[in-house]
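Can't attach files on this board, so I'm pasting raw text. These are the components:
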Amino acid sequence: MDMSKYKELFISESREHLHSMNELIVFLEKEPDDSEKIDSLFRAAHSIKGMAASMGYAVIAELAHKLEDLMDRVRKGILHFDADAADLLLEGSDCLESMILDVDQERDGNRDITELTGRISGYDPSVAFDAAPPSISGQPEGALPPAVKETRQSARHKQGESGQTVRVKTEILDHLINTTGELITNKHRLLNIGSELNSARLDEGLAELARLLRELYNEVINVRMMPFASISDRFPRMVRDLAKKSGKEVNFVIEGEDIELDRGILEELADPLIHIIRNSIDHGLETGEERLASGKPAEGLVRLSVSREKDRIVIIVEDDGRGMDPAKLLASALEKGFLDPEHAGELTIRETLLLVCIPGFSTALEVTDVSGRGVGMDAVNSTIQSLSGSLAIESEQGQGSRIILKLPLTITIINALLAKVTPFSVAIPVTNILQTLEVRRSLITTPENQEVFYMGDEAVPILSLNRIFAAHTALPESEFVSLFIAEVKGRKVGLAVDSFLGQQEVFVKPLGRPLAKLRGLAGGATLGDGEIVFVLDVANLL
Amino acid sequence: MMDGTNRLILFTLHGCRYALRLRDVAEVMEPPRIYPMPRVPRYIAGIMNFHGKMVSVLDLADFLTGNDRHPQGQVLVLDTRIANLALWVDSVENISSAEIIREESECTERFVEKVLMMADEEVRMLSVEKLLDKIEEILSEISSR
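---
Top answer:
Structure tokens for the assembled complex are below.
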């Protein structure tokens, strides 16, 4: 029988089981007596064994079988689940992952596991419980698969109460959103034509079309939504390894894993989050001794929480570590020439903390192999901003730090404010706009060659999009200047345009090669009359 | 020698003949409506809608020779798997099979992969990759200013 068509399914399901194995191992290390989790871990290993055996991957099946046996001994009370058992199981899980990767990459998936399986079979911890009579084989085969299915559904598809789920290729999800985006563009086209024809019947039909499209759009967005857990379930394992490596005790808490985000955003988020969490452990948390000396519990806390705030997702990574020292950050920025001494005093605390997002900036005294030398907060920031999100840092010395990410629910079809910057038309994602204003020209002053206006006590610099785009050299000479306020690099900036044209939902398409190299443009979108507008990547404009 | 299945599309630019591999070209069309783009050099004429995709239009005459483009001209849209780029050329002549190539020689001109002799006439075969690399390099440079 040709099994190749089942290979993809085997790989994706095995990886899911491995994910949950890692989660369970890390959990059991802390709560070794949770019999439900012990059973789940046993079943996960059992499932991998069964699938691998049926696909003919004998070595994978053998290793999974050894892990299952080890868990069986735990389950029967022969072994106590301790840190050594956890290490061994994680090592086994890593090895399984490598072999599954081999299979995925068309290699044969056979590795020499003799030494590892030897250690697993021969594992004999110093602490043993009263042994129950050992059984030779595991559970009867038939009893297990339904339980596995239930576990997966309850963990992954809490929203789908009916429990009916199907697997869909991600490309199909992308096609769905693309087609919906094209339909929305065409709706605007028809609305344009409709406004010229003045036909009540057509308008009625268009109104109904618009309603149906809105429904379709919501459904498509829903289908594309994935729980945050789909990326965060690997974090506890990573934190465990980092904690061991850095010799720190870490209590890692995740909240809001069920919150759903567009899969396009989720895919981009994993790396920035890994980086932030690594930073928290490596630079944020103190060692156990330091913590005890300053009256804190030896175990440090790192909390990753996700919540939904209207049409935005808020992700916070906080720790109760040493916090950041603004004075030290300022000094370092001055020393490295990132900051002009004259302007150093003008920075707010918030702006000062954001200095860590400047490329090449770091206050880490030494490079560690855990997080490197502050590498990548600039990369984190630019990824978040390219997703039309924002990053803020709060920190109190001795108390800890909070990195706050705010992201839109989706990035493909967005609400945008259209503006004219002659001869160009641009679309500004509304999530990037703090405020739009018409400022009387006489209120704009030019101290130090920089046009500014005052919002209350705050001097807000004005930059002309015309000038940034090199279209014109000066603001248009009208009595009022149209501008929108956005946050760029932690600072409020007024960006002047010729005029605002109105708000509209637009389907953002990539510019592709070679235009994707241009900074400050997130993509293009077609309006109802066929005109192409450029979607601004506001944070990276300057 | 060039693979016989490898057909070429021939076009002209200020009296010179050029070629691209047919498989790299998605479509030949009359100049479409082009929308201007911010932050690009003059030879990127703008952007067009190509079957729902955003495709930038390169004024090839301006880019290669610094001369103005032919006011009418034609647009060769590259396969969108390679790039979202169309080349504005003077005119597209025909499609030729590689059999009529008498000889080919290496060429030191930038963006020209080789020179082919076809019916006693030189035809410069453009290197799409070199063209793209150069434009990307220029755009990156503009972005880092």
